[in-house]
């Protein structure tokens, strides 16, 4: 129901909002005008046509073929992929280490608790950039030269030029590999469905399910062994073959992982401790085994507490991947917001594209978290 | 997770435990050994074998830390290239905040309100005037000569002092009844929170000069400060919004019924409670901001971290990265560690107050 | 002394979405007297009371307090609220301020009284409601009855011409109820216009000049307390009185 007072209030609100929009609009126009004038004064062109122009610079590490004749568009994609690679590796490694540390933080062993606590306090109170420079300078500079590289089981090598890893040579085996992977995936999926059905009926999973999961695992192992692995070989002044990771890349991943793992550890610890001790004891009194208690009583509510802040931390890692710029690893910010902008002068376009990338990535994490929260809320009811 | 029972502490208890849990005992002993070994290595390097006075790298014991490098460069690490004769000005600027803070924390100090107001309004202006000079008979010191810890403090304190009022306005607008204002604010906040600080600083150096009217210029530290301020105000705004939402509607209604208007209600009733409620979060934001000041290196400013990094390539002191970064690390670590303890103390205190309140009132309010 | 402030309400209607909480309420509330408003829970008493000082927006109808219309212009509304104090069921004391500061805040910030004057006045008021010894405590350290008496002192500090009470004793234990009611009885003798939502029928009987009975968003009965309690006219009032027991 709307009375005369509500109509008046609506009118007032409308005018107020119009004024707000007008003020913001005026500011935007002013900024746009200044930008146009400034760009002209500096003789800078505008438009997105540069994306199809030759960039003329090389990229030290790329997941797609890029050379000096590639376009800026291709440079953009290469930088984006590098950023995503750093973020993905950082997220995976920091999560693994963070969970280990977080569980150790609440372990029954006092020295373990003490050491992990010391680690967390030491690491998270230092700037990430300091971690990065420290890794870059101290650790990698103090590593041996290529000639005296540290062998890791004879298949991987660590030197001050970077980390050399074995890499499978795909080529003629690609089809075989893909079909084996597909078969493993199908088997795993069927096993998972059987598992779930059995569990929802309160029965033990059928033998077939176990067989299938074991089979898919076996297949994976076979594929991994059967691949044509190329182990890096020392030839001349450098290792040939395999995958060579630049020292910048290694120190970046190390810094991102070690720094964010400390934060994730604290999140995990808080999550575990948020599960009421009474609940655990009640479950034990019901005669549940300690594995069942972990799976049914501790993990679900702890995850509810853990996931939102961890998602936040993932956003942080995605954004921090841009620190690659500082050590000179060619991520998106480095090659696009840095070199490409310098060469083309298309400030507005390049800044907008870079901003859009990060906003989309952060929005994706936020949406995923939202979906998780909704699912958890549903389960709770 | 389990409190150790007292029997475990007796010698026979320890032995019994060791026999019952061989793996965890092995782990414990191993870890203790690692911890002790690490401690010994660090003490040996940093103290026992360390060299405190030397003219160059060659004068240092290679087995230990070469602190002579840090001591030699200390004035530069502290003040950057600020002229030696004028450093008393920098001293005042550096020492004023802790002095003000101590004064404000003194119990029963009546002028606290004035200190806070002065800290947020008078200090930045006065500090800027004093450092840059050019008036009152002070010689002008251009901002590209500011550096080291001084610059870190300027950027950190400046960004906080500027972003705090901005964050309050953003938080209020974020909760406004006007959808247009609300959505604009959400857009603004989410934009800055979604941007990497590296990109923010790049942008502020590239874009801000383009946005300004022709002929209008801001110095590089000013540009970086602007970017950092906008960035941290978005985070602070979300913290403060949480505080605002934690203040019950009854408080606003009581204030309105007493005939407070909107702004006075916010100033005297809502904000004090909201800020108090999220003080731990604000302190955590300060920690994050302080660590983030290191990013100004990206736009070529010589803050503490960058000036030390630059000094590492001095030919007389080559290869002393560990010493340099340990020095920077100790400064950052002390600051952040102390603040994070303040933050968790505040948090514990608050949850205690809330519990007491519930007991005393039978949780009627 | 100026003439006591009366309240005039004409066909007041209020909707929450499509739910009509007040259905054209018209009533004249006598100045300088205590009017008690009662009725079953959900009948719209609080909503009605909150319309009187504009805390609640309504759709149609008019309210006049002391001959001045309760408008919807923020500034005029703020001005009007200076003369209309309100006491809430849940006290709504400001937890970050001491008892004394709770009372002095509005006079100091809105009437620009000097601190010393405001504190003297506040101490007089706290004395009057019997919590002067608690002046330096935080609200969290008070009992419920003390909190509500501080809330009354806080409202009185603005020297309002009208005082609104929304179930001031419902959240209290029996002993505290008496403390608060005693203060209110004293107030009623002082000649301020009071509108009190309460189920304390003993209080109504002793000090009310009139009792308004509300049901389903309407005032269905208006009577002298004695008449209301001895022989309520409407069936609804009868069963209501039977439910809450004898005064
Ligand atoms: N903010 C609100 N939104 C929706 N409905 C409300 C709101 N406040 C009150 N109501 C409804 O209006 C009716 C009257 O409420 P109220 O005035 O609080 O009753 P009383 O004080 O007599 O118990 C109730 O049915 C209540 O559910
Ligand atoms: Mg009510």
From TrEMBL, chain B:
<protein>
    <submittedName>
        <fullName>Amino acid ABC transporter permease</fullName>
    </submittedName>
</protein>
TrEMBL record, chain C:
<protein>
    <submittedName>
        <fullName>Amino acid ABC transporter ATP-binding protein</fullName>
    </submittedName>
</protein>
<keyword id="KW-0067">ATP-binding</keyword>
<keyword id="KW-0547">Nucleotide-binding</keyword>
């Amino acid at each position: 129901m709307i009375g005369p007072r509500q109509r008046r209030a609506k009118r007032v609100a409308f005018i107020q909002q119009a004024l707000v929009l007008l003020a913001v609009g005026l500011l935007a126009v002013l900024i746009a005008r200044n930008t146009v004038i400034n760009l002209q004064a500096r003789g800078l062109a505008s438009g997105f046509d540069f994306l199809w122009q030759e960039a003329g610079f090389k990229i030290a590490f790329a997941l797609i073929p890029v050379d000096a004749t590639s376009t800026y568009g291709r440079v953009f994609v290469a930088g984006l992929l590098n950023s995503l690679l750093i973020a993905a590796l950082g997220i995976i490694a920091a999560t693994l280490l963070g969970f280990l540390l977080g569980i150790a933080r609440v372990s029954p062993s006092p020295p373990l608790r003490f050491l992990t606590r010391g680690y967390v306090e030491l690491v998270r109170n230092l700037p990430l950039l300091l971690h990065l420079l420290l890794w870059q300078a101290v650790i990698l500079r103090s590593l041996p030269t290529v000639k005296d590289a540290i062998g890791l089981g004879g298949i991987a090598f660590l030197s001050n030029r970077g980390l050399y890893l074995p890499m499978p040579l795909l080529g003629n085996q690609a089809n075989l590999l893909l079909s084996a992977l597909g078969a493993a995936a199908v088997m795993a999926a069927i096993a998972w469905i059987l598992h779930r059905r059995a569990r929802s009926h309160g029965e033990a999973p059928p033998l077939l399910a176990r067989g299938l999961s074991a089979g898919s695992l076996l297949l994976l192992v076979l594929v991994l062994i059967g691949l044509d692995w190329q182990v890096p070989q020392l030839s001349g002044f450098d290792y040939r073959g395999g995958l060579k990771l630049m020292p910048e890349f290694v120190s970046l991943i190390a810094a991102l992982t070690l720094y964010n793992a400390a934060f994730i550890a604290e999140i995990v610890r808080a999550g575990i401790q948020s599960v009421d001790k009474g609940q655990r004891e009640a479950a034990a009194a019901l005669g549940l085994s300690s594995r069942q208690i972990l799976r049914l009583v501790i993990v679900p509510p702890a995850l509810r507490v853990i996931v939102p802040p961890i998602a936040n931390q993932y956003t942080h890692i995605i954004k921090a991947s841009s620190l690659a710029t500082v050590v000179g690893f060619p991520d998106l910010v480095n090659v696009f917001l840095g070199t490409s902008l310098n060469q083309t002068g298309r400030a507005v376009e390049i800044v907008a594209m870079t901003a859009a990338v990060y906003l989309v990535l952060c929005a994706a994490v936020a949406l995923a978290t939202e979906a998780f929260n909704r699912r958890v809320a549903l389960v709770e009811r | 997770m389990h409190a150790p029972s007292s029997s475990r502490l007796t010698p026979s208890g320890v032995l019994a435990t060791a026999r019952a849990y061989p793996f965890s005992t092995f782990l414990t002993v191993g870890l203790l050994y690692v911890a002790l070994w690490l401690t010994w290595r660090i003490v040996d390097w940093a103290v026992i074998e360390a060299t405190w006075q030397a003219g160059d790298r060659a004068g240092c014991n290679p087995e230990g830390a070469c602190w002579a490098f840090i001591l030699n460069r200390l004035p530069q690490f502290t003040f950057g290239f600020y002229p030696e004769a004028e450093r008393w000005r920098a001293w005042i600027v550096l020492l004023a905040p802790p002095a003000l803070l101590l004064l404000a924390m003194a119990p029963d100090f009546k002028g606290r309100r004035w200190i806070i107001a002065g800290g947020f309004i008078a200090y930045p202006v006065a500090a800027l005037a004093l450092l840059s000079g050019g008036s009152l008979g002070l010689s002008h010191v251009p901002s590209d000569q500011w550096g080291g810890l001084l610059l870190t403090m300027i950027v950190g304190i400046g960004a906080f002092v500027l972003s705090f009022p901005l964050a309050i306005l953003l938080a209020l607008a974020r909760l406004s009844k006007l959808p247009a204002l609300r959505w604009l604010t959400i857009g603004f906040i989410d934009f800055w929170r979604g941007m990497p600080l590296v990109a923010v600083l790049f942008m502020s150096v590239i874009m801000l000069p383009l946005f300004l009217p022709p002929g209008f210029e801001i110095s590089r530290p000013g540009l970086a400060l602007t970017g950092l301020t906008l960035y941290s105000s978005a985070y602070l705004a979300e913290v403060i919004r949480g505080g605002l939402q934690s203040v019950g509607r009854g408080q606003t209604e009581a204030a309105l019924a007493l005939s407070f208007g909107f702004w006075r209600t916010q100033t005297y009733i809502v904000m004090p409670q909201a800020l108090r409620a999220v003080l731990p979060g604000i302190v955590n934001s300060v920690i994050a901001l302080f660590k983030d000041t290191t990013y100004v290196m990206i736009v070529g400013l010589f803050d503490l971290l960058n000036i030390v990094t630059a000094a590492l390539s001095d030919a007389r002191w080559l290869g002393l990265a560990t010493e340099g970064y340990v020095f920077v690390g100790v400064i950052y670590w002390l600051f952040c560690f102390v603040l994070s303890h303040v933050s968790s103390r505040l948090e514990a205190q608050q949850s205690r107050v809330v519990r007491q309140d519930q007991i005393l009132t039978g949780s009627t309010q | 002394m100026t003439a006591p402030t009366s309240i005039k309400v004409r066909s007041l209607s209020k909707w929450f979405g499509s739910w009509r909480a007040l259905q054209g309420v018209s009533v004249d509330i006598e100045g300088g007297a205590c009017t008690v408003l009662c009725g079953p829970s959900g009948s719209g008493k609080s909503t009605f009371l909150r319309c009187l000082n504009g805390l609640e927006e309504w759709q149609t109808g008019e309210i006049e307090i002391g001959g001045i219309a309760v408008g919807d212009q923020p500034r005029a509304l703020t001005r009007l609220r200076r003369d209309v104090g309100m006491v809430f069921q849940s006290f709504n004391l400001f937890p970050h301020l001491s008892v004394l500061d709770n009372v002095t805040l509005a006079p100091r910030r809105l009437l620009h009284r000097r601190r010393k004057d405001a504190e003297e006045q506040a101490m007089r008021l706290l004395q009057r409601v019997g919590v002067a010894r608690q002046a330096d405590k935080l609200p969290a350290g008070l009992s419920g009855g003390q909190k509500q008496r501080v809330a009354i002192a806080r409202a009185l500090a603005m020297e309002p011409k009208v005082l609104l009470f929304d179930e001031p004793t419902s959240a209290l234990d029996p002993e505290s109820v008496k403390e608060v009611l005693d203060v209110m009885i004293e107030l009623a003798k002082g000649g301020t216009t009071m509108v009190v939502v309460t189920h304390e029928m003993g209080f109504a009987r002793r000090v009310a000049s009139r009792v308004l009975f509300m049901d389903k968003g309407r005032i269905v009965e208006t009577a002298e307390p004695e008449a209301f309690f001895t022989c309520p006219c409407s069936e609804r009032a009868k069963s209501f009185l039977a439910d809450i027991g004898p005064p």
